[in-house]
Amino acid sequence: MSILSYDGGMSLRIALLGLLSFSGPASGYDLTKKFETSINHVWQAGHSQIYPELAKMAADGLITVEAEGARGRKIYTITREGRDELRHWLTEHTPPGPVRSEGALQAFLLPILDPPEALAVLRRTTEAVEAKLEHLQGLRAVKGSQAAGREEHKLGGYALDLGIRHALTTLAWARDTAAAIDPDADPGQGEPA
Amino acid sequence: MSILSYDGGMSLRIALLGLLSFSGPASGYDLTKKFETSINHVWQAGHSQIYPELAKMAADGLITVEAEGARGRKIYTITREGRDELRHWLTEHTPPGPVRSEGALQAFLLPILDPPEALAVLRRTTEAVEAKLEHLQGLRAVKGSQAAGREEHKLGGYALDLGIRHALTTLAWARDTAAAIDPDADPGQGEPA
DNA sequence: TTGCCCATGTAATACGTTACATGATTTC
DNA sequence: GAAATCATGTAACGTATTACATGGGCAA
């Protein structure tokens, strides 16, 4: 896992470097909070995964403990090597397409069910995606209301847009698929393709 | 991990049950091949994960070895319990939204890069997604050319549609995002929103 | 008889989740 | 002084990837 020859599976590291790069020095606790809020729809990690990873990253020279705050709070700062690693991953690493989605697996297996059951599954999917969509749009509203001059709201903005578009696409798919399974079913809104 | 109280993380099991349910009895080798081809864009697993899982599923009574073929080939058949488990997961389990996407993580961190680098990343993303799109459309063409009366081509058809729609959505996002970063950049095709 | 595909497994390692465990500081 | 939050860690377990290991059958 050297700085220049990377193979895969270090996304947690990259996410942490990204947050430290953008928001400045932070503790493991701070970063855990940011995982719960801002970056949550793109990558997840709990504190039990974050603390050991920070220790490894410090050992690898990607971050350093420049200061210690109250009650043992360790403040990590990204190093030059850390920034290089982050930039390298962003510019050189081509991610594998989105794989391993339980939702897509349900879509895949949908023909196993008979029409009434399949339609019920699609309704549940629609509800779940609508809830997610509202959540993401709420996040966007928060960003929009932040001080206009600040740059911070930009981090994650493109990913938010992408997530919203994907949610809308999934809703359209569910509507059209329900119509294909049963043309007489009430699509709720819109019209099938 | 009883049959009725399920929490999460048994998607591999479900995928195997789905394939066995739809295509009839098969060996671990057969199922590994199907993972490489048909179900690949939705869930992945190699033989080293599949063989032990089949053994556990047999121990749990979800499948049985009804026959043994040439050179130690074990033919698994889904049981009644297996079908129940599969149907239960499909109808009752609400999957968590698509999480942990390296592509979305790159989108999230894009503002860290300066415009020329960010645009280069978006171009690479576009190329990768176009390749994936072609692959999926190829799969759909194969399905379309199969005997019309057969049902088999239906398994996976809805997921294929969903995958293609998501790919198209990602392409549109990349185009619009590039235009937002640099309005003078050549978008290649189409016009920004 | 050499090489390729069929066919099945295990081992080592990494990644991720849940639960366990501890203690300091602030707030009511 | 009780409860909530701050703050950091480890342990146990499950899931996933890569590499290692073995042997049968068939075709050139």
UniProtKB/TrEMBL annotation, chains A, B:
Domain Transcription regulator PadR C-terminal stretches: 99-181
Alphabetical list of InterPro entries matching this protein: Tscrpt_reg_PadR_C, Tscrpt_reg_PadR_N, WH-like_DNA-bd_sf, WH_DNA-bd_sf
UniProt domain Transcription regulator PadR N-terminal: residue ranges: 16-87
Protein name, as recorded: PadR family transcriptional regulator
Organism: Sphaerisporangium flaviroseum
